[in-house]
Amino acid sequence: MDRKVTSLFGYVSKSVLLAFYALFALFPLIWMLILSFKPDSQMFTTTFFFDPTLDNFRAVFSQSDFLRNLLNNLIISSLAVVVSLAVGVPAAYALARFQFKGREDIAFTFLSFRFAPEILVIIPLYLIYQRLGLIDNYFGLIWVYQLISLPLLIWILRGFFEDISPDIESAAQLDGYSWWQVFFKVLLPLVRPGLVAAALLCFIFCWNAFTFTLQLGGNSTQTSTVSMTRFLASDTVHYGWVAAAALVSALPEVILALLIQKHLVRGLSFGAVKG
Amino acid sequence: MASVEIEGLTKWYGKRRGVENISFNLADKEFLTVFGPAGAGKTTTLNLIAGIVTPNQGSVKIAGRNIDGLEPAERNIAMVFESYALYPQLTVFENMAFPLRSPKYKQPEKKVKERVVHYAKVMKIDHLLDRQIQALSNGQRQRTALGRALVRQPDVFLFDEPLSHLDAKLRHSMRAELKEMRSQLGTTTIYVTHDYLEAMSLGDRVAVINEGRIHHIGTPKEVYFRPTTMEVARLFGDPEINLVMGQLKAKGLQLVVQILGENVGIEVPPDAAEPLRTANKVYVGFRPANVNVIEGNSKTAFHGVVYSFEPLGTKSVLTVDAADGTRIRALIDGRRTIQIDRRIQFTITPHSLMFFDADTHRFLFRSKVPIEEVANG
């Protein structure tokens, strides 16, 4: 009886604490959700009572290029992740498997791309891009996004490749497979959780990237992150529009994360984090 | 099924020696065990044969065909790894079928199934075919790894310490099972192990390897009873062989050897006298089983103080400090109990003595009296 009471108490208190934390963590999102449905006149009230309206959404989609910017973001972010995968998977494999001179230095150099804040390198990058004619260019943005996604991908996947015993590769080769077949039939399936998790993280970071597109993007390649700021002009400030746009922007990430939740948990807790 | 010829295989890992000048031949269907302590170069040898590691020098021929420079897949070799190297994302069936579905050894799906099921029965894992690898015990994984090697009917089998991760009891029963299986398989096999019992019980011949070099190749009896060097003698047998410095002296027509700082000499068996005539100082080796603790006094016995006593069931291991302080290991009947610090007397069976050169540590002689007689005497 005693034990039953304590376990019930434990269950209840744990649930209350978790609920409180969830509320704390999600409150900004909830507030954003509320804002997006508020009319401009009630924007600054702090009560939860308002007259819900879809005007903000209507305005965002009809009175601006937001849909196109969203599409731009999708194109640039996905292609950036694809390029990162094509380059990063072999790189991670090589850094995990082969002993060569300067291996750790190279791995560290990749990681160091993430050390400096973007704003620090944006001026030189701007000058270089201007000379190369890559300003307001899809290719240019995809290229510069590698700074965001490649280090992440390489470092997560490297841990995964290191976890696979080289014996497994040898065994598959002796079983009659060429190296490429071993890579695609044995190794890739084994690192798939890591691959999915890393790719998703890369996508989220690219999707949310702001500084690079602000400076290196232009009218034709404007992404949604930058275009949202246009709703905050000096004369008119449409908080409701910003909230609606941010809400729509967040949707792809949420949907993706939910779809591959299973891989995500496994992928982030295996391999990458180890002693 | 094929013969194997290995000639001068050498592999350096930077400045560290992997193996040097490894040469041996295997007849068709022969079973060779490669035995040595950890880090001796056993696995390197296998990897060189399998083509996983490229040698600096030397060549490998299988069935007369030179396979140097061929990819592992082209060599028609099956290997069982120490770590099992199973594919964790596949089931037992898929693991075993993997080689038969490869581009190189492709079989029709019907035949794949037939063979996998057949060898799963041989390995007694036919009830586990649908299991994931993670759901298997170590012993079952071991069987799956063996099964995956068997299904393909390769020219040569390579085993890399396949039993080393099993617990002692399972290891002994698997050893017996492997011995039973090898008579059915009839494929040329190279089996690496660090367990001298496995090496001796499974192999037609044993190659003793240490520090990257082969020290001795011979039948299990040869390497045990007539090891080429003292190092080889030390590697076989548990408790370890006793190796002590001895002084040869002529005593009339007889040759005697004095050891352990006592005047009692052991009479060298008559057939050993001639080859040892020119030697003066030798190392004398004798197995713990050939040390006989005697009751009462004897003029020909050695003296010692019991340092430790470990009962092991049918036998007990006795460690004795001899008169000159040398520690001697003896294996005695398990029913006897001997107190620590007790003074005892012991004799050593003369026919069991091995003589090694004092400087080179190379084998000189051991009496040719039939081994059975020595064992019983």
What does this structure look like?
The complex is a heterodimer of chains A (275) and B (377). Chain A has 275 residues and is mainly α. Chain A has one domain (62-269): MetI-like fold. Helices cover 74% and strands 0% of the residues of chain A. The radius of gyration of chain A is 23 Å and the shape is flat. The two termini of chain A are 42 Å apart. Chain B is an alpha+beta fold and 377 residues long. Chain B folds into two domains: 4-229, Rossmann fold, CATH 3.40.50; 242-376, OB fold (Dihydrolipoamide Acetyltransferase, E2P), CATH 2.40.50.140. In chain B, the strands form four sheets. Chain B has a six-stranded mixed sheet with strand order 6-7-8-3-9-10, with helices on both faces. In chain B, strands 13-12-11-14-20-21 form a six-stranded antiparallel sheet. In chain B, a hairpin with a 2-residue loop joins strand 11 (242-251) and strand 12 (254-259).
Summary of the model, kept short:
Helix content of chain A is 74%, strand content 0%. By secondary structure, chain A is mainly alpha-helical.
Helix and strand arrangement:
The complex is a heterodimer of chains A (275) and B (377).
Chain A: H1 2-36, H2 55-62, H3 66-97, H4 103-112, H5 118-132, H6 138-163, H7 166-174, H8 179-207, H9 211-216, H10 224-227, H11 239-259, H12 261-269
Helix pairs in contact in A: 1-11, 2-11, 3-6, 3-8, 4-6, 6-8, 7-8, 8-12
Chain B: E1 4-13, E2 16-26, E3 31-35, H1 42-50, E4 57-62, E5 65-66, E6 77-80, H2 92-97, H3 109-122, H4 138-150, E7 156-160, H5 168-185, E8 188-193, H6 196-202, E9 205-210, E10 213-218, H7 220-225, H8 230-235, E11 242-251, E12 254-259, E13 265-267, H9 270-276, E14 281-286, E15 291-294, E16 302-311, E17 315-322, E18 327-333, E19 343-348, E20 354-357, E21 363-366, H10 371-376
Parallel strand pairs in B: 3-8, 3-9, 6-7, 7-8
Antiparallel strand pairs in B: 1-2, 1-4, 4-5, 9-10, 11-12, 11-14, 12-13, 14-20, 15-19, 16-17, 16-19, 17-18, 20-21
